[in-house]
Amino acid sequence: MPDEILTLPEVAQLLKVAEKTVYTMAQKSQLPAFKVRGQWRFKRVDIDRWIEQQKDASRDEGRN
């Protein structure tokens, strides 16, 4: 589903990190996120893109 919206616990599970980690990253704008009635939400496509960017950054660091 292209417009799939994920909750904070779903993103934490996807990234295999603690919910607090996702919360902190969202607050610091380190993850693409937005709030709906005070609760964090994430577009699946944005999270998938963010994951790919992290992979690319890791590969680039390995080359230096």
UniProtKB/TrEMBL annotation:
UniProt xrefs under InterPro entries: DNA-bd_dom_put_sf, HTH_17, SinI_DNA-bd
Domain Helix-turn-helix intervals: 6-54
Top-rank lineage group of the source organism: Bacteria
Gene Ontology MF, one: DNA binding
Presence of keyword DNA-binding: yes
Tagged with keyword DNA-binding: yes
Keyword entries, A-Z: DNA-binding
Entry protein name: DNA-binding protein
